[in-house]
Amino acid sequence: MSRNAIRDTFFEECEELLEALVEGLSAMEEDAGNMDVVNAVFRAVHSIKGGAGAFALGRLVSFAHTFETVMDKVRSQELMVDEALMRLFHRSGDQLADLVEAARDERDPNAEAEATILRELEAYLGEEEQGGDEDFSFDALSLDFGTSADSEQSPEYPETPPSALRQFDIRFKPSRALYANGHEPLLLFDALAELGTLTVQADLSFLPDFDAFDPNDAVLAWQLQLETAEPETVLHEIFEFVESLCELDMSVTEESDTPDFDMETVTETAVMKPPPATLVKSAKVASVMPGAGSDGPPSPRTAAASKEEPRGPRPTLRVDLERVDRLINTVGELIINQAMISQRIEELELPAVAHLTNELEAYKLLARDIQEGVMAIRAQPAKPLFQRMSRIVREASEATGKKARLVTVGDSTEVDKTVIERLADPLTHMVRNAVDHGLEKPEKRTEAGKDTIGTIRLSASHRSGSVFIEIADDGAGLNRARILEKAIEKGLVVPEAELSEAEIDNLLFLPGFSTASEVSNLSGRGVGMDVVKNAVAALGGRVSITSSPGAGTTFTIVLPLTLAVMDGFVISVADQTMVIPIASIIETIRPNRRDLHSIGTKGFVISVRGAYVPIVDVARNLGLAPGAQDPGNGVLLLVSTESQGLTALRVEAIHDQRQVVIKSLESNYGAIPGVSAATILGDGKIALILDPQELVKLQPAAPYFAAVTSPRMELRHA
Amino acid sequence: MLDVLEGPTETQFEFITFSAGNQSFCLEITQIREIRRWTPVTKLPHTPEDVLGVMNLRGAVIPIFDLSARFGLGKTVDNERNVVIVAAAGGTTVGLLVESVSEILSVNKSSIQETPDIKSEAARQAILGVISVGESMVRVVNLDAVLDTDGGMVA
C-alpha cells in the first residue's frame, strides 16, 4: 500500500470518526453524565490525533490534543459540562472537521477560528496543560468509569496522592484475532513495565493436548501484577487497541490496606494470586506526570466496563466505488438481456409444453433480485448527511440570534450515495432557510406561547419506492400575503391573479424570488429555492411545501430510490422511440379538438380546465420534424416547467410504462439539448430519455408563435 | 472482433486500413476495439450531419460518426460492405462508419511519412501522417481529433 493510499484510508477513517464525534456530542447534550458517550467522543478525538500524528499534520494534532485534554477533564469529572462548554465542544468538533478537511485538501485552515476555539478550550485547562503541543501527558488525568454509578465513591474519597503505589492485577488472555492483527503481547508488557514493577506469569492452563494443538490458536493467557503510581487510565491506554481482541480483567489493590469496597474483586485477587513470577520485568516508577488530576479510587466496575465494551460496528468492507458502478452497469445489462431473451422467445411462439415461461419468469425474478442487491450496495444511510445539518443549524442559529435544535428522524433510511452527495447543498440551504426565515426570534416565540428554542425536524423515510426527506420547522409558517406581495412586486404574477394557497407557496420556487425583506448575512447569498428545486429535479425528484400559519412550514423532497433506473413512459416522437420520465408528467391528455386553439399560423394552445396551456411539439423542438404537427392527433403530456410554467408536450403516442436503466450519453459523446440520458430497450435499441425542462427551452421564444422556424441549433454541447 | 495479433516489435506498427469517402485511411490497431456490421442507430437530435446517432455496444451508449462526412468527404453511401469500427482513446469509445475495411498493415515507424503540407489546417490535424503502400497512399487517422466533439472537424 502506498503512502497515499494509507493517507486516503486515514481520511476515510477520519470521516467515520468525525461522524462518531458528532453523534457522541449530540448524545452528550442529552446526557452529559453518560461516561460511555464521553469516552466515545474522547476516543474519536484521540484516534484522529493519533492518525494525524503519523502523517505529521501538526496543526491537527495540536488542536486535537487540546480538545482531547479538555474532554479528558470531563471524563475525569473535573469539569462539569454546561451549556457553554457543550457549545464549545460542538464548535471544536466543527473546527476539527475543518482541520481534517484542510489537511486532506492540503490547504490552510482558517487560523482565526482555530485560535479562538483553542483559546477558549485552554481556558478550561489548568496552567500546566497548556501549550503542550508535543506533550501528550494528559495521561495523568484519571478515568473513573464508576463515579456516575457509584456516586458514594468520588465525592467522599479525597484525591489519592499521585505518588501512592497501587497494585494492579491484570488477567490478559489474547484472542486469536489479536495475533492476527499483528499485536504482540510482549510489547504490551514492555509498555506496562515502564510504568512500574511488573510481574508476569504465563497461564498455560488453556494449552490443549499436543494432539489437539493448533499452532494458530491463541492458548496462552497471562497473569500480570503491576505496581505503579499511574492511574488506571494509563493502563487502559496501553491496552486500548487490543481491548476488543482479548479478555482483559483489571483489578486494583491499594498498597496500603485497601478498604473492602468490593468483596468480589478482593476474592478474585486472592484466588488468582499468581505463583512466584517466572518472568520479571521491572523498571523505575515513571516520574509523576505534571498536573495529575483527581485519582479517584478506580472502581471495580472498570473491569466490567471493558468487558461490556461493544464489539464494535458490524464488519464492513471498503470497496472502490468504480467497481460497484461497474457491477451495477453489468447488472443493468443483465436486465436488458433478460428482457431481450423474453421478447425473442415470445416471438418464437413456442408450444406451451416447453415450460419455458416458468423458467423465464424465474430468471426475471433472479435478475431483479440481483439488481436490487447491487443497488443496495450504493445505498447509504442518510445519517452522515443529517449530522452535517446539525452544524448548519448551530451556525445558523448563532448567526441569527435564534435558538434552534435539530431533531432527526429515520436517519438510518438508506439513500443512493450520489443522491446523498448531491443533496448536501440543497439541504444545507433549506435548513439554513428554516432557521433564518422559518423560525421566529425567541421573544416572538415566547409571545406565541412556544418554546423559545425552535425545532428543525429532519426526517427521512421510504414510501412506495421513493425516498421522502422532510425539513420541518415549528416557526410562524409562510407569510402568504407577503409572498404574494413580493411576487407581484417582482412581476412574477399579475396583481389581479387569484392564487390558491398552494400556488402562493409554490411562488417560492420561482427563480429570482427571495422573501427576506432584510438580507441577512446568512441566506442572502443569491441562492433561492429555485436552485434547490433544480438540484432536486436533477436527481429526478421534486420538492413541495406545506405550511400552516403559526405552526410551521414543511418542505418535502421526494426522490427516486436509485439514480440508475427510472420509471418512464415509452413514447414515439417522429417515428423514434423515446422515454420521458413519469415523475415529470402531471397528466396525459388526448386532446379534444374543441379545446385546441391556434395562435399565429402554426402555434396551438389547449385549454385545460379553463387555463390556456401552450403546446410544444417535441419532434419539432428536437429538430426531427420540420414544423409543428397537428396537435389534434397525438397525445399531450402536461408538464410543469420552470421557464414557462405549465406546458403540454405533443408526442405521437404513448406505448408503455416501464422501468428503464439510465445510461449516460455524456461519457462517450456529450450533452444533447433536450435529452438527459439514454436507455436500452428490450430489443437492444437505444431510446433517448427526454428532459422536459430543457426541451421546452429549446425554443425560447413563445412556442405558440409559429413564425419562428424550428430552431437552428449549432451546438453539439448544451 | 479481430484476433489479437502478435505484438509489434519496437519499431513496427500495425494498422488497419479502410476506406472512407473513396480515400484510404488507417488506424493503429491498438486503438481499435472491434469491427461490427452496420446496424441502424438511434438518431440524436441537434447533431451535425456526421453524427449518425448512438448504438448499444454491450450496454454502453456509443456515438457513431460517419467518418467520410466528418472528413468533409460527403456522406457514406449505404452499402452491404459498410462497417463500424469501434475505436477508443482516452476513455471515450466511438464507432466510425466506413465504407469497408481492407487489410492489416505492418510497417516500420520510418515508413510513416509526415503529412504533406496541405492548406487545410483541419485536415492536417485529422491526419497524423501518411504511409505509402504500393501505388496508393494511406492516411493515418488522428483518433483524438476525430473524437474531439467540441471542435468542428472540417467544413
Biggest β-sheet description of chain B: 6 strands, mixed
What would the CATH topology of chain B be? OB fold (Dihydrolipoamide Acetyltransferase, E2P)
Largest sheet of chain A: 6 strands, mixed
User: Rg of chain A, please?
Assistant: 33 Å
Helical residues, percent of chain B: under 10%
Question: What's the CATH architecture name of chain B?
Answer: Beta Barrel
Alpha carbon gap, first and last residue of chain B: 33 Å
Q: Uncertain regions of chain B: pLDDT < 50 for 5+ in a row?
A: 151-155
Binned, the helix content of chain A reads 25-40%
What does this structure look like?
The complex is a heterodimer of chains A (718) and B (155). With 718 residues, chain A is α+β, with helices and mostly antiparallel strands. Chain A has 5 domains: 3-135, Up-down Bundle (Four Helix Bundle (Hemerythrin (Met), subunit A)); 153-308; 321-379; 382-560, Heat Shock Protein 90; 565-697, SH3 type barrels (Roll). In chain A, a hairpin with a 2-residue loop joins strand 17 and strand 18 (611-617). In chain A, helix 2 runs antiparallel to helix 3 (58-75). The longest helix of chain A is centred in the N-terminal third of the chain and has 28 residues, at 3-30. Chain B has 155 residues and is mostly beta strands. Chain B has one domain: OB fold (Dihydrolipoamide Acetyltransferase, E2P), CATH 2.40.50. Helices cover 10% and strands 48% of the residues of chain B. Chain B contains 3 helices and 11 strands, in the order E-E-E-E-E-H-E-E-E-E-H-E-E-H. The termini of chain B are far apart. In chain B, 34% of the residues are buried. The model of chain B is unreliable at 151-155 (pLDDT under 50). The chains are: A alpha+beta (718), B mainly beta (155). At the A-B interface, helix 12, strand 22 and strand 23 of A face strand 4, strand 5 and strand 7 of B.
